[in-house]
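Need residues for this backbone.
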């Protein structure tokens, strides 16, 4: 699991922003992240990933990946919004902290990323959970648009089991 080694690993792009309580940061990821197990994509896969990480040991993590233009709709002067209905991820993967590293199936390369961390997600069976995630992704997209932050490639949502809770991190590669 990646932890910031010092304050220069994160750069504030926008404070509390105009739309929420998260911060939009630039993360300088110095080591690539790796996942060793697939989670089947399809209906219910977001709930399955949150449930799996919620029951996993400390330090475990999952990643969900969307093509940006499938998850986020650009609407001219009014800024981006999430797609409705919100799509299932293109792919999902996880790594359980207590198992030895096996074959790596997915990676997130070291580099600079737009980054935000959301609070604890609702329980997987909570009917508001998909709406909650879509709202966090929309906040991330709108804040990047509002601050004119440039990013490319897919959207990654990383679920990390830490401090007996699940942290939700949104990442997208930047220059």
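Answer:
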């Amino acid at each position: 699991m990646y932890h910031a080694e010092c304050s220069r690993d994160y750069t504030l792009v926008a404070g509390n922003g105009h739309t929420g309580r998260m911060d939009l940061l630039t993360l300088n990821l110095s080591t690539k992240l790796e996942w060793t197990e697939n989670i089947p994509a399809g209906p219910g896969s977001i709930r399955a990933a949150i449930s799996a990480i919620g029951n996993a040991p400390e330090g475990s993590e999952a990643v969900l990946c969307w093509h940006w233009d499938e998850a986020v709709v650009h609407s001219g002067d009014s800024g981006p919004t999430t797609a409705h209905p919100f799509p299932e991820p293109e792919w999902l993967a996880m790594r359980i902290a207590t198992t030895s590293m096996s074959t790596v199936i997915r990676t997130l390369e070291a580099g600079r990323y737009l980054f935000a961390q959301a609070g604890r997600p609702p329980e997987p069976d909570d009917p508001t959970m998909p709406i909650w995630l879509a709202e966090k992704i929309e906040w991330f997209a709108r804040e990047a648009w509002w601050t004119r932050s440039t990013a490319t490639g897919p959207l990654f949502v990383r679920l990390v089991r830490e401090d007996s809770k699940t942290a939700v991190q949104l990442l997208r590669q930047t220059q």
